[in-house]
Design goal:
This protein is mainly beta. The chain has no helices and four strands. Helices cover about 0% and strands about 40% of the residues.
Length: about 70
């Protein structure tokens, strides 16, 4: 579960839009999703174990976090 909504205050939830992009450490885009949900899930079952970068972009904010996928 990812929480793209951490970038918004409580008053903006009804207008929430976010882009979720998952990159491997070589910079290749491996998963992309648009969401309008404050909390959302990404299905990573088909991805190999490893370290990835999750980029979350909203209308006025962009943040990248390192995540580890381990099945």
């Amino acid at each position: 579960t990812v929480y793209p909504g951490i970038f918004l205050d409580e008053h903006n939830r009804e207008d929430f839009q976010a882009s979720l992009q998952l990159f491997d450490l070589h910079g290749r885009l491996v998963l992309e999703r648009q969401t309008n949900q404050y909390m959302d899930q990404l299905n990573v079952q088909t991805l190999p174990n490893g370290v990835y970068l999750l980029k979350v972009s909203t209308n006025d904010t962009q943040r990248t976090e390192k995540i580890v996928i381990q099945h």
